[in-house]
Amino acid sequence: MSEKFVVGYDGSDASNRALEFAVARAKSQGGSIVVAHVLEWSPYSFLTPTELEERHKRRNEELARAKSALMDPVVEKLSDSGVEISTEIKYGHIAKTLATVCSDTGATQMVIGRDGETSIGSRVFGSVASTLAQMAPVPCTIVP
Question: How far apart are CA 6 and CA 51, in angstroms?
Fold first, then answer.
């Protein structure tokens, strides 16, 4: 069985290191990669119909921008890697959504980058990496 890696990707140095790690593993194991980007979105339910329509339009614009500015270039960059690459762009809580992408795509492993952030916010609220290490439905590799 070939491996399928989901890579949490946001264009940062940390996510690029995670992607490089996953590509190397996929090459050596005959696997494929799903590059996943999550746009955080708060589900407010008290908006007027006009505000909901505007919000939906902004959401579609953000999806298109993420595809053209983030995902298309990474797919182009990896086009000659010899690894099958697909992409997912979703809205939601980052850790929960990446876990869902793993389940939905049949991934066998998740790879994410860690940026070494040590702010009070990450200590109080937790980081995406630590949350995924606890809740991922598949083994989660955290690349420093």
Answer: 34
